[in-house]
C-alpha cells in the first residue's frame, strides 16, 4: 500500500508559530540581498512570507524600492499569486488543492466540508485564530488526489471523513 502522507520538510506537523515578528529592517535586508536575482520580485516575496508568515503591507514599498518598481506593480504580484497571504496566518495552515486532478476526485466536496466544519472560508482564518484555510493549485500529488496539506505535511486521497481526522491531530 502506498504511503499517502508525506512530510515535505524535516519538520513534522510544524505549526506556524515559528514566524518572526514583522521587522522593516529585516525585510529591507531580504529585499536587498535578493534584488539581483532574475525576476527577483517573486523570490523576495516568498522569502518575506517564509520569514514573517505573510506579506506585511509595509513590505510593499520596501520591495518596490529595492526593485525600482511601482507599489502597484508589487501589489499586483501579491494579489495575483494565491500563495501569498496578506494577513498573519492562523496557528496552523491547511491548504486544499483545487487543481484539475483533485477537483475531479472530490476536491470540491472536501472544500465544502472543511468550510462548514471550520466555519470559515478559503482564504480566511477561524475566529479563534487556530486554522487558516487556503487554496492551492496543484500540490504535486495528483496521483493521490484529492490532496491537502496540514502545515508542512502533504496528504493524499483525502476524504471529508479523513480530513476531519487530520484536523483532530492539530486541534
Ligand atoms: S491537482 Fe491536486 S495535487 Fe495536482
Task: Describe, in plain words, how this protein is organized in 3D.
The protein is 40% helix and 12% strand. It is an alpha+beta fold and 171 residues long. Strands 1-5-4-2-3 form a five-stranded mixed β-sheet, with helices on one face. A hairpin with a 2-residue loop joins strand 4 and strand 5 (153-155). Helix 1 packs antiparallel against helix 2. The structure holds FE2/S2 (inorganic) cluster (FES). FE2/S2 (inorganic) cluster binds at residues 97, 99-102, 138-142, 145, 147.
How many β strands by DSSP? 5
Strand order, largest beta sheet: 1-5-4-2-3
Biggest sheet details: 5 strands, mixed
CA-to-CA gap between the ends?
A: 28 Å
Structural class: alpha+beta
Order of helices and strands: EHHHHEHHEEEH
Average pLDDT score: 90
Q: Please tell me how large the radius of gyration is.
A: 17 Å
The ligands found in this model are: FE2/S2 (inorganic) cluster
So how many helices?
A: 7
Estimate the global geometry from the Cα principal axes: elongated
Spans of at least 5 consecutive residues whose pLDDT stays below 50 are 8-14
Give the % helix.
Answer: 25-40%
Residue fraction in strands: 5-15%
Outline the fold blueprint.
Elements: E1 5-7, H1 24-34, H2 41-52, H3 59-67, H4 71-80, E2 92-97, H5 100-104, H6 107-118, E3 131-136, E4 148-150, E5 153-155, H7 160-168
FE2/S2 (inorganic) cluster (FES) binds at residues 97, 99-102, 138-142, 145, 147.
Amino acid at each position: 500500500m502506498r504511503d499517502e502522507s508525506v512530510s515535505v520538510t524535516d519538520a513534522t506537523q510544524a505549526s506556524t508559530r515559528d514566524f518572526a515578528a514583522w521587522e522593516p529592517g529585516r525585510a529591507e535586508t531580504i529585499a536587498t540581498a535578493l534584488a539581483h536575482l532574475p525576476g527577483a520580485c517573486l523570490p523576495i516575496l516568498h522569502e518575506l512570507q517564509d520569514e514573517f508568515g505573510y506579506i506585511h503591507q509595509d513590505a510593499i514599498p520596501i520591495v518596490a524600492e529595492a526593485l525600482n518598481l511601482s507599489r502597484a506593480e508589487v501589489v499586483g504580484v501579491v494579489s495575483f499569486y494565491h500563495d501569498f497571504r496578506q494577513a498573519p496566518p492562523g496557528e496552523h495552515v491547511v491548504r486544499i488543492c483545487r487543481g484539475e486532478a483533485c477537483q475531479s476526485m472530490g476536491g470540491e466536496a472536501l472544500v465544502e466540508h472543511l468550510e462548514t466544519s471550520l466555519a470559515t472560508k478559503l482564504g480566511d482564518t477561524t475566529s479563534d485564530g487556530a486554522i487558516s484555510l487556503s487554496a492551492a493549485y496543484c500540490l504535486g500529488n495528483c496521483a493521490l488526489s484529492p490532496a491537502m496539506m496540514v502545515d508542512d505535511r502533504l496528504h493524499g486521497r483525502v476524504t471529508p471523513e479523513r480530513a476531519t481526522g487530520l484536523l483532530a491531530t492539530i486541534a
